[in-house]
Specification:
By secondary structure, the chain is an alpha+beta fold. Helices cover 16% and strands 35% of the residues. It has one domain (11-281): 2,3-Dihydroxybiphenyl 1,2-Dioxygenase, domain 1. The chain has helices spanning 22-31, 45-48, 98-106, 170-181, 216-219, 236-242; strands spanning 11-19, 36-41, 55-60, 63-70, 87-92, 111-116, 123-130, 136-142, 157-167, 184-185, 194-198, 205-210, 226-231, 246-247, 266-270, 276-281. The two termini are 16 Å apart.
Length: 286
């Protein structure tokens, strides 16, 4: 809870991104990104029939629950524009990204940058890399680094630093994310037509940037991909009440029992622009 008693999320917990080839994506996330595979969900008849999403779940950058969701429509291997779709930013345990650039070049990973940000931006430097499905990942050095032990032999990642989200109305997006999830306004990451909001408990960032139309890889990929926010149990009810675009069924048939996670309170929904979000109780290990 913030100083003015506004209920706020605990943290950006994990993300799930779309994929057309889980095997190909697994090689990238388990090697270059250093993720450890935890489990695969929906390896069953409903999953094979594409009624529910087949998802590989990893521990990535010390976040348990990072996922790759198999999609039943073709995903462009190249983004339609820079920062296309939801972009997850990962904090690198380093003073510079020179070693990450060398590692990307050696493994022929597509990237651009590094990009340097002037003070007082919380992000000092970023390298933008593409996964095999054209999802953009931002590998960053922070000015306020955490002391967590890094995960990954190729790129030492400590946490999800931030997430970039496309919106078509910047003022509406800022008001909705701030008021729904208790995010605060503070130091900005430089960029045109964008605003930076901060998770008070962790210093993680939600960076909103305006586009004319939200990317198809965000709005069409409804089976699995989402941004996950975790919340202290006592603060979950008031935030849930404000989360006014809830999703109750995976498919169009409301008589069919949907797939859902076991244990704990959680719900899926959307921001005003079609980006999919999950909120839920903070897990016991957090």
């Amino acid at each position: 809870m913030t100083a003015n008693k506004t209920p706020t999320i605990d943290r950006i917990d994990h993300g799930v991104v779309p994929s057309n080839d889980l095997g190909r994506a697994h090689r990238f996330y388990s090697t270059f990104m250093g993720g450890g595979l935890d489990h695969l969900t929906n390896l069953n008849l409903r999953g094979l029939n594409r009624e529910v999403p087949q998802i590989l779940f990893y521990t990535l950058a010390n976040h348990k629950g990072w996922g790759l969701a198999l999609q039943d429509f073709p995903i462009a291997p190249e983004p339609a524009r820079p920062l296309d779709g939801v972009v997850y930013g990962f904090e690198v345990a380093a003073d510079s990204l020179a070693a990450v650039v060398r590692a990307a070049e050696e493994r022929k990973v597509k990237f651009h940058g590094p990009v340097n940000y002037a003070e007082p931006s919380p992000i000092k430097e970023s390298l933008f890399v593409l996964d095999p499905d054209g999802n953009t990942l931002e590998l960053s050095v922070r000015r306020d680094p955490v002391g967590d032990k890094p995960q990954g032999k190729v790129v030492p990642l400590t946490r999800i630093s931030h997430v970039r989200v496309e919106v078509t109305d910047l003022e509406q997006g800022k008001s909705w994310y701030r008021d729904t999830f208790g995010l605060s306004e503070g130091k900005e990451v430089p960029g045109e037509e964008q605003v930076t909001l901060t998770v008070p408990n962790t210093g993680q960032l939600v960076i909103l940037h305006r586009v004319d139309r939200v990317a198809e890889r965000s709005t069409r990929a409804v089976k699995g991909p989402h941004i996950d926010f975790r919340i202290a149990p006592e603060l979950y009810p008031p935030i849930l009440e404000k989360f006014n675009r809830k999703e109750y069924y995976w498919g169009p048939d409301p008589t069919k029992i949907p797939w859902h996670e076991q244990g704990g309170h959680t719900v899926y929904g959307y921001d005003p622009f079609g980006n999919r979000i999950q909120i839920g109780h903070r897990f016991a290990h957090q």
